[in-house]
Design brief:
binds heme C, 2 strands, two-stranded antiparallel sheet, 8 helices, 198 residues
Length: 198
């Protein structure tokens, strides 16, 4: 319960959250950490996340039941090394930010943030196993150099993440909730970032 209070404060007010340093509870055991990790993996491997977290092909994916088959993004879209499509067609050409409900329609481009773009190559999750993603996320060289606290704060600030839990347009919602996901990361980190292959 203690965790939830902290997370609620984070979500409600990022500014206050920065001043109130999150102290990871020391009570999480390795077993609890591994159980929390299994839930984190269900999220990171979900199409609403992994479709953008692709590797050096620079090609976003269309996958998940709402896309009747798994395939590369249509229309020959390639994000390039810029990851925003600067080399060819910018992602924001179609994925701009709109306040109306355009993304509630099936097969419309999600329009939730101007910075819609691929995740960094190091954060490649599409098709990766639980152990692979677990080792990536705890490695500062591949997680954007973030501490546990920074990882969690990063999640709460990101519009794209909020979209993944309310995507509309018949798309499957990412499992659990943003709050529960942040809480699971907190438990996993407090347990010392265990991975099943340790
Ligand atoms: C020409 C318009 C267009 C451009 C440019 C474009 N997209 Fe898309 N994108 C779409 C459409 C349309 C869909 C939804 C297709 C559907 O639901 O059948 C989509 C869906 C996606 C999805 C799947 C989201 C989900 O449902 O999980 C991802 C990921 C994505 N685009 C990433 C990108 C990235 C990254 C770029 C830039 C490199 C980009 N797109 C550029 C039109 C575009
Ligand atoms: C539209 C594409 C897109 C989608 C969809 C997306 N991400 Fe990301 N993700 C990014 C980008 C871009 C970054 C890099 C942001 C930065 O470093 O500031 C990122 C970085 C991250 C990071 C930082 C860790 C790292 O290894 O760099 C985490 C954690 C993360 N995303 C989680 C998620 C989760 C969980 C979901 C689904 C609920 C998700 N993302 C869906 C684009 C996306």
């Amino acid at each position: 319960m203690r965790y939830f209070v902290l997370i609620a404060a984070l979500l409600a007010s990022p500014v206050v959250a920065e001043e109130t340093a999150i102290t990871p509870p020391v009570s999480a055991s390795i077993e609890e950490g591994l159980i929390a990790w299994d839930r984190v993996y269900e999220v990171t491997s979900h199409p609403r996340c992994s479709n953008c977290h692709v590797g050096p092909s620079n090609v976003p994916m269309w996958s998940g039941p709402s896309y009747d088959r798994t395939r590369p993004h249509g229309m020959n879209i390639n994000a390039g090394e810029s990851r925003i499509g600067a080399e060819a067609v910018l992602c924001s050409t179609c994925h701009a930010y709109r306040e109306d409900n355009a993304n509630n329609l099936p097969h419309m481009a999600p329009q939730v943030a101007m910075n819609w773009q691929l995740a960094p190559v190091e954060a490649e999750w599409f098709g990766k196993s639980s152990d692979e993603i677990c080792n990536q996320l705890r490695d500062p060289d591949r997680n954007g150099g973030r501490t546990l606290t920074e990882l969690i704060e990063h999640l709460s600030h990101d519009l794209i993440l909020h979209w993944a839990w309310s995507p509309g347009g018949g798309r499957e919602v990412a499992p659990y909730s943003l709050e529960e996901h942040m809480n699971d990361l907190l438990i996993w980190g407090s347990a010392g970032f265990p991975c099943a292959n340790d």
